[in-house]
Every structure is written in C-alpha cells, then in structure tokens.
Design goal:
The protein contains 35 helices and 16 strands.
C-alpha cells in the first residue's frame, strides 16, 4: 500500500501542476508553430519548383492578362477600370501588391503567400483542436494535388478557396455558439466572398442549408434562435453583390471586354462535359466521403472530446450538393457569369480537410464498433486517400481536365513584342483589350503611350485615331462582336494607312502591330490619252454604265447579286483611266462589301468575296476576283504614287496565296478555287482563269514580299502546263480526277475550251512567259472574223457559244499588251466600236455589266498604247 502524502508534498504537487500544464501547452504551441512553418516552407518550395509546369497549363490565362492590364492602366494614370463581369477584390489585391512591391511580387510572391494561407486555413484554422495527425492527413494530399499549384495563376480562384475555408471555419464556430457577434463576423466574411467570385452564391446557399440542417437535426439550440440569426445571415451576406451593383452604377467602367466571354458548346453538351470530365474527380471522392459519414451517423458516439464532431466534412458535403446544383443551372443558363472552375477547385481542395476532420474521430468509432463497420470505415477512408493521391500519378491527363487552358495568344503577343522592340516608331500605341498587357510589358512600352478600350469614346478614337497614334496592335478573337474590340472600325479604315511592323503566331492565335502612316492626300484626276474615235465610244459607254449602276455603283445582276469580277473590273478601269472620283467610290464598295476584315476567321481575313448582296451575307471568297482587285490597287499605286494601295494589294495578295494547296502526294501546287465562309472549307479544285502571274510578280516587285513572288513563279509554271497545243487552255485542275483517270491531269468538261478565258489567262503571262500569250493571240489571229466563243480541244472545231463583246474586248486587250496594235485596232473596229450601239441599247442581262466594263477596259488600254 502506498504511503499517504504529507501536507508539504501535497502543496508541492498543487504548486507544480499549473506550471507543468503551462509548459506542456507551450511545448504543444511550439510544436504546432514548427509544423506550420515546415508546411509553409514546403508550400513555398513546391510552388517555386512546380511554377513552370503550372504555367504551361494555366499560365497567361485571360484573368491574369486582365490583372496585368489593370496594372498598366493604373501606371498610365487611368485608375482602376474594371470589366462589368469582374469583381473588385482580386484586382484590388493584385494592384495593392504590385504598388507595394512591383509586378514581380504581385505575379509570383503574392500567389505563393496565398497558397501558404490556404494550406494553413484548411489545416490549422479549419481543423483547430483536432489531433496533429488529422492536420497532417489533410496537409499531405493537399500538397500532392496539382490543382493546388495551378491556383498560382488564378488569383480569383485562390481568394475564393481561401475565403471559403474561412467561411467553413465560421460555420463551425457559429454552430457551437450562435451569437450575434459570430454571425456578424460570418456576414462580413461572406460579403468579402461575394465581392471575389460569382460562384459565391453556391457557398452561401450551402452554408444556410447546413445551418438549417443542424438546427433541425441536432436540436442543440432552439430552432427559433437559429432562424432569427439566419434572417441576419442570409440577406446581409448577399449584400456584397448589392454594394457592387451600386458602386458599378455610379463609378464603374462601362466596357465589356472579351476576357470573360468565350465560345462554348451547346448547354447540354457542356453539362455532359462538366459531369464526366471537370467533376469526375470531385464526384468520386465525395461518394467515398459520404460513405464514411453515413457510418459515423450509425455509430453510437460520433463525438470527439470537447463535443467536436465531423462538422467540416458535413460542410463540404453541403457545399458540394449546392455547388453541383449551381453547376447544372450554370451550364444550362448561359448568361450566368460564375465559372465552374471555381467550384471544381473548391471541391477538390476542401476534401483533404474533410478527411482530416473525419480521421479525428476514427479512434472513437474503431473502439465502439466491430467487424464489418470497422472494415468499411477503414476501407472507405483508404479509398478516398488513394483515389485522391494516386490518381494524379496514374492518370496525368486529369491534371488539365476542366482547367482554364494556357492561352496561345500570349505566346503570339510575346513574339510580336520582341519584333516590335526593334522597330518601335514612337508615338502613342492603340491596342485592343485582348492580351494587350503581355504585348506592352514584353515590348517595354511606357504605359503612358497607351490608348486602350478603357479610354473614353474609344470607338470614335479607333475610327479616327489621333495624329500622335503611330502604332496599332490587333489580335484575333473568337467573337469580333463583343464590346471593346471594334474590328470593322479598327481594320477596315486602318490597314491601307498602316505597315506591318511585327507579327506573332501561335496557331490559331495571331497578334499584329501596324505602323500607322499619315493619311493619304485626296487623289487627283489624271490626264488620259484621247484617241479618236475610241474616246467618244468610251465616253458614251461609260455614261450608260454609270446610268445603269445608279447611285450605289453596284453592278447588280438579274439574281440580285453584284459580282466581284464586275466590281473589280470597274476598279481596274478607274485606275487605268485615272478617274479619282470613280476609283474612290468603287474602292469604298470593295472595302465595305467585298473585303473580309473580321479577324474571327484567319482563313477568311482579307479575302475578296466573289459576290455581294444587299440583304445576305457573303458566302465564299473569289480567287479571280481577288486578282482583279489586286491588279486595280497595284495599278492605282503606280498611277498615283500611293503606297497605301500597295499595302492593301499586298494583304489581299497574301490572302490569295493562303488559298494554296502545296505540292504533295504526287499532286502539283495549285490555288484552291474558293474558301466557304460558312463551312470553313476550301474547294478541292482550281480553274486556270484563277491565275495571273504578271500581277503577282508586279506586286512582289513593289512590296518585296517573297511569298507572293514564290506564288508568281509557281503560277506561271502551272499555267504553262495547262495550255493546250492549240494555244487554248484546259479549264481546270482537280487532283481527285487523277484517282479515277491516272493519265488525266488538266481537263475541261466536255473537252470544251472558252476563248475569252484563254485571252484572260494569257493577259497575265505577257511578262512572265510571253510565249504562252503569243500562242493564244496567234490562235485568235488565224481565225479572225470567224473566231468563236468555244472550241473542242479534241478537233479544234468551234462549238458556237456567246460571241459577246467581252470576247473581242479580251482579244483586243491581249493584242495591245503584246504590242500588236494593228490587230488590236482591227478587232476593236470590227467588233467593238461598230457594235457599240447594240451594246448600249441591249436590255439588262446577267452579262451586260461584264461585257460593257470589259469593253471600256479595252478601249482605254488601246488609246493609252496608241498615244505612246
């Protein structure tokens, strides 16, 4: 038997007790701080090590670019100019960090610090009072989660997860002791949450549902008291959105940028994708977690010492259920601005804390249960842990499922910026809102030089840039019609007055910087040769053409369409005549009605439509039409010494060359006949009339463009191969025909060749391969008055056809180009001037404008040649 303690001994124990307890608390606190410091160091080290990997997946996303743009605007003295689809807390936090420590701190160290805070909140704060093992169990899978490091490039998601963790902690405190003071703290936190993300309603709804569930199920306090506090909690928590709406209405930016507007599949397709891909991991883990919690509910005692229970796990399940419902609504109702990414990240990152809260009570349940329940509990917990940790190693593809992908446009912006630094012309820089920040930062451009969509009356500034704007930076976009991009105003009036300085490509992204040239002076009328009797015939026919064109100058045919070949011929005629008024008017028609300038489709950009209608969209590009317009602009550049027309001809010429089909699989190089704007598909064939080597060669010589020069050489070779021994041409080339008839390369349907087409093709080879043109003219010269519109290539017998004025106008132009003025005059006298009255009085038809304008071209060129 132990001896009884003496009084002094008892006094000694009583005196030493509090001191030992205090020392134990100090030791526990010190160990906890040491563990927290080690976890923080682990976050910093792993974040730095994995930052490059995370940048490849989520770096340079639209939101990060938006934050960079905000910093540039602030440096330029424009203040904070938010997009209406953004919320103020993330950009304000970013700007505060940048102002205090610079952009490097805001982009690198602020996200790392927030990740440290997230880890501590989800372990130390949310699991306060739980065993150290539970906190480590929550920390290890969190540190092993790739999603955790992808947050480094999404400040808005970081803040959402951080505030959500704090909100869950306040819910636990609120549940244990629902006082007005605690609900006030919770409301303040929820207001901050609602100013951070549009996904906040899902978290607020989950919180309210959880509190109501606890109040009715546990009966820990009077239900009336809970509901009274909830009447404060719910409406006042949503006050953040009301505050934001009032602030926006009074002082917010009115601009909608395309940062937060992206193309998406149809609603049910998005829902299916979200459930099967984006939410696949969270759903799997939550099922396992739910199994564990059901076992806890069935156990006799689910409490830890001190009355704590697995509240964190129940909150996660409540948030998940509400979030899933919100995602269903989000995917079906496109107008909601919240991002599913925020909810997906939160699902994944809260699960380790829920697992930790469950583990804290495992010992109690294991001591009070036997057999199957214990096995299911351990198995369920292991399943969740293994699924959470190992699936990233076994299925690396899930790292990127449903995440905001890295934008290729940022890479294109960097490439363009590097080239721009070497050719910066000074002056102000006009930029559109998409990835302008990356271009500006990489290009070393002073923010005070910027003119951005956040400037007042930006649309008017784009239409008429100030004189000090020397550079215009444009990018592609999925949607050219979102506010702030202004592609029609930006490009249609700018390109002719601009020179390409720098270009960056990272398919399908495109970033271009143009140097803006001073506005061109008004074109003067030029003197022209007047040779009788052709001048009088030209003037009479021109008057009739003008009368039939009407005020809109659109050569509309019987089907209601105005065809690009007719408009291009008028533009070429005006340039050759030197008629500035006519050229300027038709030039405007080309730019407004035929030239495609929307950058949403890179294949369509700067193509010339083959026809235009007042009430319909253009449907396809035209290759012959593009060449005719290029010919007109090159001629105008030569006649008026106007380099802006060279620049415009070059971009159209490059679009024409982009129609090429490279030589491959035994098939030759060729230019595809058209590009369909609706189906986004190219034709698979080509017509020989779609080539003009001389025009391309003239353009290449004037602009120094090697791609156009290459196409000119290849065009001359193809035309040469397509010429029949008679001098006529096969009509077309289509590689698929060779799979049926291996020996058949060029061909003509029914073996019929058109004489006018031969003259048209030959007219484009006078300089590049004169022999081709000579053979065509010789064919026409030997037949003289009996020249027919069509010939059989098998026996060269004429097959009639329309012996229209255009046929003899084409022969006249070819003779003039080859210097045979005698034959040119003979043809004009016998078949043009003598039949002028018939042409002028002819009724409207599909071919009238084509015949009349081609005749005008022949009369003009003949007079110019005769005058020397």
């Amino acid at each position: 038997m132990a001896m009884a303690q003496t009084a002094p001994q008892r006094l000694h124990v009583i005196a030493a007790g509090p001191t030992a307890s205090l020392q134990a608390n100090r030791h526990r606190t010190g160990r906890a701080l040491l563990v927290d410091a080690l976890m923080a160091l682990a976050v910093v080290g792993l974040s730095l090590a994995l930052r490059g990997w995370a940048a490849d997946i989520a770096g340079d996303n639209a939101f990060l670019e938006f934050l960079r743009a905000q910093w540039l605007l602030l440096l330029a003295g424009n203040g904070v100019a938010l997009d209406p689809l953004s919320l103020p807390v993330p950009p304000l936090v970013f700007l505060a960090a940048a102002a205090l420590g610079g952009p490097q701190v805001a982009e690198v160290w602020l996200p790392i610090a927030l990740n440290v805070a997230i880890l501590l909140v989800l372990t130390r704060v949310l699991l306060r009072g739980y065993p150290a093992a539970a906190k480590l169990l929550a920390a290890v899978p969190l540190l092993a989660t790739p999603f955790f490091y992808l947050l480094l490039f999404r400040l808005d998601l970081q803040l959402f997860v951080l505030l959500l963790g704090l909100q869950v902690a306040t819910l636990r405190a609120f549940r244990l002791q629902p006082t007005v003071a605690r609900v006030t703290w919770a409301i303040g936190l929820n207001i901050a949450l609602s100013l951070t993300s549009y996904a906040a309603p899902a978290a607020l709804g989950a919180a309210v549902g959880y509190l109501l569930l606890i109040a009715n199920y546990k009966r820990e306090v009077q239900v009336a008291a809970w509901r009274a506090l909830l009447w404060l909690y719910a409406p006042f928590s949503l006050a953040g959105y009301l505050v934001w709406m009032v602030a926006w209405a009074t002082a917010g930016s009115r601009l909608k940028t395309s940062y937060f507007l992206t193309a998406a599949p149809e609603p049910f397709g998005r829902l299916t994708t979200s459930v099967t891909q984006t939410l696949g991991l969270p759903l799997l883990l939550l099922v396992g977690l739910a199994v564990i919690l059901v076992l806890f509910l069935r156990s006799p005692d689910t409490r830890m010492r001190g009355g704590r229970s697995q509240a964190a796990a129940w909150v996660v399940l409540s948030f998940a259920a509400t979030g899933l419902g919100w995602l269903v609504i989000q995917t079906l109702v496109e107008t909601l601005p919240s991002e599913p990414d925020a909810l997906t990240f939160a699902f994944v990152l809260l699960i380790p804390a829920a697992i930790g809260s469950v583990y804290g009570q495992t010992r109690n349940i294991l001591n009070t249960n036997r057999g199957t329940t214990r096995l299911l509990l351990v198995g369920g917990l292991a399943m969740v842990m293994v699924a959470f940790s190992m699936q990233y190693l076994l299925r690396p593809i899930v790292w990127g499922d449903g995440l905001p992908s890295a934008e290729r446009r940022a890479a294109a912006a960097r490439e363009a910026a590097r080239a721009f630094r070497l050719a910066d012309p000074g002056g102000r820089v006009l930029v559109d809102p998409r990835f302008a920040a990356t271009f500006v930062l990489e290009g070393g451009i002073n923010p005070n030089r910027l003119l951005t969509p956040f400037d007042q009356d930006f649309s008017a500034l784009v239409a008429a840039p100030p004189d000090d704007v020397r550079t215009i930076v444009v990018t592609d976009a999925e949607d050219d019609f979102v506010g702030g991009n202004y592609p029609r105003l930006r490009l249609l009036d700018v390109v002719p007055d601009a020179t390409l300085l720098a270009e960056g490509r990272a398919r399908p992204a495109l970033v271009r910087a143009f140097r803006r040239e001073p506005p061109a002076a008004l074109l003067p009328d030029l003197e022209r040769a007047i040779v009788a009797p052709y001048a009088a015939a030209e003037e009479r026919l021109l008057a009739e053409v003008a009368r039939r064109l009407g005020p809109d100058l659109m050569p509309t045919r019987m089907d209601g369409w105005a065809y690009g070949i007719d408009i291009g011929n008028i533009l070429l005629y005006a340039a050759e005549r030197g008629d500035a008024g006519l050229f300027t008017a038709v030039d405007r028609i080309v730019r407004d009605r035929l030239l495609v300038t929307e950058m949403s489709d890179g294949n369509a950009l700067y193509t010339v439509a083959w026809r235009a209608h007042a009430d319909r969209q253009v449907d396809a590009s035209g290759t012959t039409e593009s060449l005719r317009v290029v010919d007109a602009y090159v001629t105008a550049a030569e006649r008026w010494a106007a380099p802006e027309f060279d620049r415009l001809a070059r971009v159209i010429g490059r679009a024409y060359v982009a129609h090429e089909q490279p030589q491959q699989d035994g098939h030759r190089w060729f230019i595809r006949n058209y590009y369909n704007y609706g189906t986004k598909q190219y034709a698979t064939n080509t017509y020989i009339v779609d080539y003009d080597p001389d025009v391309l060669a003239r353009l290449a010589q004037r602009t120094g463009d090697p791609e156009i020069e290459r196409a000119a050489v290849a065009s001359a070779e193809l035309v040469q191969q397509a010429q029949h021994a008679s001098g006529l041409f096969y009509l077309m080339y289509q590689p698929e025909i060779q799979t049926i008839h291996p020996g058949l390369e060029f061909f003509a349907p029914n073996a019929l060749a058109k004489t006018y087409d031969a003259a048209e093709v030959a007219l484009g080879t006078v300089s590049s391969d004169r022999a081709i043109a000579e053979r065509v003219l010789e064919f026409a010269r030997t037949r003289g008055d009996v020249l027919e519109a069509e010939y059989s290539l098998t026996d060269l017998h004429g097959h009639g056809g329309d012996r229209s004025p255009a046929l003899f106008a084409g022969i006249t132009r070819l003779a003039v180009a080859l210097g045979d003025l005698d034959f040119a005059r003979q043809t004009a006298d016998e078949h043009l001037a003598s039949e002028l009255e018939d042409l002028i009085s002819a009724p409207a038809s599909d071919s009238w404008f084509f015949n009349a304008i081609t005749t005008l071209l022949s009369l003009r060129e003949l007079q110019a040649a005769m005058a020397g």
